[in-house]
Specification:
Length: 229
């Protein structure tokens, strides 16, 4: 298992908008550009309308890359799939608060399988529901679009939610990574990291660009420069 990175902030490319027929090369060119954290969006056609892929895809590319694999499960009953993603080589599984009747139990199961655990909230779900789980997890993911599709418009309320999450983490004296997913672009990356986002998932901004490598570098450049007021 790869170790979670604390060298923040950084860009986590999402392969959702990549060409699945050429997935190994799609990952390789951004890995060659320097990315060491990849985000895999698993959708079941039930919790969210689209169906993407499962553990077999993660497994098929695992051995080719020295990188942290973060699996974002947009599926019902995520606890039934933890062992399969562990077997596939996932380093982290993130589950939606909205899909877990027994969230504490699911987080425990992920840790028992020797993976990092993340919890995700939808745009309409308040940060406050995370109060009793923030101290147990490795990452909190704030969705900045409604889950299910790449290429959607960034929801501006996200900045406020990051700020609320930071307050909650300070109050609980715990420091899971803060990840944001959806609509991340060169236009908002700097403000997101200045607000406290540490892992910025980016799908279409990279993979739908004419030059994905240049787009990855442009995004990374936005968040590594010092932020001036
Ligand atoms: C959406 C997914 C995202 C998606 C983001 O449900 O969770 O990870 O890849 O895509 P962009 O960056 O295009 O908004
Ligand atoms: Zn995602």
């Amino acid at each position: 298992m790869n170790k979670i990175s604390r060298k923040v902030p950084f860009i986590a490319p999402s392969i959702l908008s990549a060409d699945f027929g050429n997935i190994r090369n799609e990952i390789k060119r951004i890995h060659d550009a320097g990315a060491r954290w990849f985000h895999f969006d698993v959708m079941d056609g039930a919790f969210v309308p689209p169906i993407t892929f499962g553990a077999e895809l993660v497994k098929s590319v695992r051995k080719d890359f020295e990188a942290y694999f973060d699996v974002h499960l947009m599926i019902h009953n995520p606890d039934q799939h933890i062992a399969a993603f562990k077997d596939a080589g996932a380093d982290m599984i993130s589950v939606h608060y909205e899909t877990c009747q027994h969230l504490h139990y699911v987080v425990d199961q992920i840790h028992n399988h020797d993976m990092d655990a993340g919890v995700v909230i939808n745009p309409a779900t308040p940060v406050s529901v995370l109060s009793d789980v923030v101290a147990l997890v490795d990452l909190i993911l704030i969705m900045s679009v409604n889950p299910g599709w790449g290429g959607q418009r960034f929801i501006e309320q996200t900045y406020q939610k990051i700020s609320e999450l930071k307050q909650l983490l300070a109050f609980k004296q715990t420091q899971p990574l803060i990840q944001v997913d959806g609509g991340v672009s060169a236009a908002n990356a700097a403000r997101l990291t200045a607000s406290g986002a540490q892992v910025l998932v980016a799908g279409s901004t990279i993979y739908k660009a004419d030059d994905p490598v240049a787009a990855y570098h442009e995004l990374s450049g936005k968040i590594t420069r010092p932020i001036t007021a």
